[in-house]
Amino acid sequence: MNTTSILNVINLSKTYHNVPGETIAIKDISFNINKEEFVGIVGPSGCGKSSILNIISSLDKDYKGKLEINKNIKIAYMFQEDTLFPWLTILDNVLIGLKIKKELTKDNKMYAIELLKKYGLYDFINKYPSELSGGMKQRVA
């Protein structure tokens, strides 16, 4: 991996095994993303965009090919639909990942609250997802 590269995708392929056979979602694609590049993945429904993102973000580990990811970057992925737990408050939804990983600290919680303020959601931290608009739910997610 060169010094400007943050992600190299090499000969990536993904096949879904289903009844009655299999579906090829991605076949032998390669690309590089360098520092300070803005990249979009576009295409029609079912062409493999989400599959690529699931693999890069480590949500899917069943693929062929090679990923080289710069260890100094963090990868975040926002789902098309919000994935909030309806029984948790907005603040609890934001903190759930840290709680699961047992990394919730006072500083992390304060940082999360600051982000909610920044994105205009502070007044809703004790509300539930059903009480928010779709755009607000996306910002929380």
Describe the structure.
There is one protein chain. The chain is an alpha+beta fold. 28% of the residues lie in helices and 23% in strands. The chain is built from four helices and three strands; from the N terminus they run E-E-H-E-H-H-H. The chain has helices at residues 49-56, 90-100, 106-118, 134-140; strands spanning 5-17, 22-34, 64-69. The chain has a three-stranded antiparallel beta sheet, covered by helices on one side. Strand 1 and strand 2 form a beta hairpin. Helix 2 (90-100) packs antiparallel against helix 3. The longest helix is centred in the last third of the chain and has 13 residues, at 106-118. The radius of gyration is 18 Å and the shape is globular. 9% of the residues are buried.
Q: What fraction of residues sit in β-strands?
A: 15-25%
> How much helix, percentage-wise, in residues?
25-40%
| Total DSSP helices | 4
The assigned structural class equals alpha+beta
Number of extended strands: 3
Distance between the termini: 32 Å
Mind telling me the C-alpha Rg? Answer: 18 Å
Order of helices and strands: EEHEHHH
What overall geometry do the principal axes of the alpha carbons give?
Answer: globular
Strand order of the largest sheet: 2-1-3
Outline the biggest β-sheet: 3 strands, antiparallel
Unreliable parts = none
How confident is the prediction overall: mean pLDDT? 88
